[in-house]
Specification:
With 416 residues, the protein is of the alpha/beta class. It has helices at 86-92, 97-102, 107-116, 119-135, 151-167, 190-207, 225-237, 254-261, 274-283, 291-297, 304-310, 330-339, 345-352, 354-359, 385-390, 407-411, and strands at 3-14, 30-40, 43-49, 58-61, 66-69, 71-73, 138-144, 171-179, 213-216, 241-246, 265-268, 286-289, 314-316, 377-380, 397-401. It binds N-(iminomethyl)-L-glutamic acid and fe (iii) ion.
């Protein structure tokens, strides 16, 4: 058994529980001062304050700093070929996101690069992104397919996620997003593409165990609410849990579908209407809000305060992708959560830990610091929780512990 203590924790801040926190509960977190954590075989075995138990063996001295659960990034498009820096100029000249897509750019240009990339190229590129994310304090990441739009490339993306899960420390949750755009070769036959997804690709993805979730981009010019329902229902028949990109640009009914299909999460929700918020509250759907995307698109911000008031659990995630959010920095997302959504630091912490975990069906094993959960945690170069929400643009994660292990910590002599 590998056992060690993390001692001298100035502030331990964590939500509590094994399910999403909603309403006032989202801001009710546990704060302990002068705390310690006992880690055993990659899991948390005990937490307390004051004098730690007298144990032989190793200790990590947290230096009186802040410790939180490892961050959970519950929405990324991690696996893609190429980048799209050329679209920045178009944006600055006023060409909109949906116009770029309608001209065959946007998602469709990343589809071309992703089809051209080999599985190993995609793997190396995503691995580098994950290394950066881990250093920023992110210990679990959801990753979507959706830049293949054909069976071969969609499966290639999902296989990359599985290979990454086996070869690097960050845990990944895989989502099938074959309905991310209508591929060029089906421009005149939507029905054929929908049938391909529902009758061929979804069954294959499920059969090979390549994804846990099925997502769809429900948006003007992409997939209608009715088409989205059909795809998510097909996913459900094959055991894939529904997620939905809803109300990002136009409110065409995406958030209303959450209740109907029993979606575990709805994503974006920038222009979510009141009825959509009510549907999510009733269904217990996690609202996965992506403020860095609003920032990058220069759009408005999701009505997060209304969601919290209505009892919708809110998660915050990066949406890392080459088009609408070329940033993977969840610390920046936390800043925006406070500054743009007007969330409190306590609500933000829950949003990037326990509620993120709930959005990917993992709230029983990660997302809070409690005995029995994974020892995924961050020692921050910060005295308290307010500090990491307030400072901007620096990486404040000092030591990131994943499944009880930190290469960085060991080598810097922090264990003694
Ligand atoms: O979440 N909204 C759809 N998909 C991504 C953008 C993908 C892209 O532009 O490449 C998003 O914003
Ligand atoms: Fe997205």
């Amino acid at each position: 058994m590998v056992q060690y203590l993390i001692t001298n924790i100035g502030m331990l801040a964590t939500p509590l529980g094994t399910s999403a926190r909603r309403g006032a509960e989202q801001g009710r977190i546990r704060i302990l001062r002068d705390a310690w954590i006992l880690v055993e075989d990659g899991k948390i075995a005990g937490i307390g304050t004051g004098d730690p138990p007298l144990l032989p063996g190793r200790r990590v001295d947290a230096g009186g700093k802040l410790v939180t659960p490892g961050l959970v990034d519950a929405h990324t498009h991690l696996i893609f070929g190429g980048w799209r820096q050329n679209e920045l100029g178009l944006k600055l000249h006023g060409v909109s996101y949906l116009e770029i897509l309608a001209r065959g750019g946007g998602i469709l240009s990343t589809v071309k690069s992703t089809r051209e990339a080999s599985e190993d190229e995609l793997l190396d590129k995503a691995r580098a992104a994950l290394e950066e994310m881990l250093a920023l304090g992110v210990t679990t990441v959801e990753a979507k397919s959706g830049y293949g739009l054909d069976q071969e490339t969609e499966l290639k993306q999902l296989r990359v996620i599985h290979r990454l899960n086996e070869t690097q420390p960050v845990d990944l949750a895989a989502t099938f997003l074959g309905a991310h755009a209508l591929p060029t070769e089906y421009q005149n036959d939507r029905e054929a593409y929908l049938r391909l997804l529902c009758e061929t690709v979804i069954p294959r993805v499920a059969e090979e165990g390549l994804a846990e979730f099925c997502d769809v981009f429900c948006e003007t010019g992409v997939f209608t609410a009715e088409e989205s329902r059909r795809i998510l229902e097909a996913g459900k028949r094959h055991g894939l849990i529904p997620k939905i990109h809803a109300d990002e640009i136009d409110p065409i009914g995406g958030s209303l579908l959450t209740k109907e299909v029993g979606a575990i999460s709805a994503e974006h929700l920038i222009v979510c209407p009141t009825e959509g918020i009510a549907a999510m509250a009733e269904a217990g759907t996690v609202a996965c809000c992506l403020p860095a995307t609003s920032f990058y698109l220069g759009s408005t911000y999701a009505p997060v305060r209304d969601m919290i008031r209505a009892g919708v659990p809110v998660a915050l995630a990066s949406d890392f992708n080459p088009g609408s959010c070329p940033s993977l920095n969840l610390q920046f997302v936390m800043n925006l959560g406070c500054l743009r959504y007007k969330m409190t630091p306590e609500e933000v912490l829950t949003a990037v830990t326990l509620n993120g975990a709930a959005a990917i069906n993992r709230a029983d094993s990660i997302g809070s610091l409690e005995p029995g959960k994974k020892a995924d945690l961050v020692i921050w170069d910060a005295p308290d929780l307010d500090y990491i929400c307030y400072r901007m643009g620096s990486n404040l994660a000092e030591i990131v512990i994943k499944d009880g292990i930190t290469e960085r910590g060991w080598t810097r002599g922090l264990l003694n």
